User: Fold this.
Amino acid sequence: MAAQDAFDLVVIGGGPGGYTAARRAAELGLRTAVVDRCRRLGGTCLRVGCIPSKTLLSLTEAYAYARDRLSQDGINARQGFEIDLPRLYAYKDAVVAKLAEGVAFLMRQNGVRVIEGTARIAGPQSVAVRHAQGEEEILEARAVLLATGSEPIDLPFLRFDGRLVVGSSEALCFPEVPKTLLIIGAGAIGLELGSVWSRLGSEVTIVEQLPRIAAGFSPTGAGALQRELAKQRIRFLLAARVTGAEVGEARVKVRVEEGGREQDLVVDRVLVAVGRRPHHAGLALEEAGILLTERGRIRVNRFWQTSLPWVYAIGDLIEGPMLAHRAQAEGRAVAELLAGKPARVRYLCIPNVIYTEPEAAGVGFSEEDFRAAKRRYRRGTAYFPANGRALAADMPNGFVTVWMDEESGRFAGMEVLGSRASELIGAGAVALEAEVSVESLARAVPAHPSFMESVHEAAIAALRARPSGGF
Ligand code: FAD
Ligand code: AMP
Assistant:
């Protein structure tokens, strides 16, 4: 066992939550270490999540657009287009490597000690790190931040085998384009990876137990997204359940029950995308006396303290939406609290995005939230077919809806379906955080032509709308 090293903060897990906390803590003068079992920092998000999926989505979107739409728009691609999967993956891996080097640089620049190894709580104010070679190192820590993220969930009759029945990590690097792909779960991961493989030529079927896709979005937004994805040849079986499966040598037979009828689907690959569970095995939580919630996430108070006051937890480990930017906001806040600064995260201001084409994005309140809160609101919508930039870019499918709180006149939320929704929603997040009025949003002058004009038009429409709700 190596000699003890003393830190103000030891972060366990170097994903977006952990590395953001470590960077901020070190910036604020705390002696900080971050431990990750992988040599490359960045966590799920960078290695097998946000970044590789968005790289594949961007490249396949360009490919599908060139293949299906360019010639209609007056650009002849005489040679046609074909996909080179190894080069696509090489590009994706290069993006990941470059960003991981950026994270490592930030740690070096701020004097964070990066330790490769598997960590656990070892006793009062101490963390044990097991290195790859087997030896254990003890770190003394005034505070510990748990940020070990999450892992995909499989189904009792569809266990991951890394080959035919897979989770999202393997679906980012199938060795060839599967002819047929069944995806279970129509959340962000199922819809995004379904888009990637459908664009590359797979026949994609998505089975979802709910009667709708994209559960976090309004029924209008989700319905419109479903229609657009169906046009791209993604087939949906909604209010449907997978009730059994037989995994063969090369194919999988899956039994699906839909509206009282059962059918067998024989497919090349199955992606189980039914959600993720917090990854805290091996941290010795029980021995340390750290409590979990009913759903198995780590229980924290509003300062992200666990039941052991010197141990904090953030990101996918705790209750709330599993999003990288939420983990980052929490990481930053914990570092600031430890440095004696005030800090908070306004969860209402955290946007949620699905990076399909069109993209779906939302922030703040929507219709259902106002109804549940019995508050009066106004709603305004602007449609992309009336937006010059969207038409010029041949991206006219979509709309922006803005919600205004009737009592205060404040901007309360926004939903966008359409190209660039992930960028436009940033304006909503800023407006919500800054508590601006819808009138200010309507007065702000967007560039012409731009997608942002639709946000402006939706704000004007909300001001002119009749109030609803409140009963
Ligand atoms: P993680 O990123 O999971 O990092 C945890 C780290 O802890 C890992 O590096 C792991 O190696 C390490 N670790 C675990 N146990 C130990 C241990 N005992 N000792 C040492 N180290 C340990 N979110 C978005 O906001 N936008 C997106 O577009 C998006 N796309 C996604 C696409 C996919 C395919 C997936 C799977 C997820 C996506 N997410 C997205 C979710 C996002 O990746 C997670 O919410 C985010 O990574 C959570 O961050 P975290 O810091 O809590 O944990
Ligand atoms: P998310 O929680 O965003 O990762 O999305 C997971 C999706 O999978 C949700 O829409 C769930 O309703 C759906 N889901 C969960 N379990 C099943 C199941 N057994 N069969 C079909 N869909 C499921």
Summary: The CA atoms of residues 127 and 352 lie 34 Å apart. The first strand starts at residue 2 and ends at 12.
